[in-house]
């Protein structure tokens, strides 16, 4: 996994699905049990993870699903994005933005958000 250190921003703050984790209190206090924390250090075992998105994304060494060349045909992520709820569409929008513009541009925008998703300029 790569890192971007522009103004202390990192792809680690982006969930595999496109959620922006830096706005989450548990993430910021170190109590997060989200999709990326602890797997890079071995504190958590990916083989015990229940989230299929996380298992696939981290298992393949991707920073997020934006890196996957098979995303258009992926039933796991597309089923997730198809769930009833506004946030799922916003997470898809984040992944699409990253695919088109890169992580650095996404983080520049997302760093101003107060939720796991927000508006694009």
Could you describe the 3D structure shown?
The chain contains five helices and no strands. With 121 residues, it is mostly helical. It has one domain (11-110). α4 (86-101) packs across α5. The protein is globular.
Largest sheet: none
**Alpha carbon gap, first and last residue:** 27 Å
Q: What would the average pLDDT be, to the nearest integer?
A: 89
State the helical fraction. Answer: 25-40%
Radius of gyration: 13 Å
Beta-strand residue fraction: under 5%
Structural class: mainly alpha
Name the helix and strand elements from N-terminus to C-terminus, one letter apiece.
HHHHH
Poorly predicted tracts of residues? 1-7
Overall form: globular
Instruction: Give the number of helices.
Output: 5
Please tally the β strands and state the result. 0
Number of domains: 1
Main attributes?
121 residues; 5 helices; mainly alpha; DUF3795 domain-containing protein; single chain
Quick structural overview:
This protein is mainly α and 121 residues long. The protein has helices spanning 25-29, 52-59, 75-81, 86-101, 103-110. Residues 1-7 have low confidence and may be disordered.
Walk me through the topology.
Layout: H1 25-29, H2 52-59, H3 75-81, H4 86-101, H5 103-110
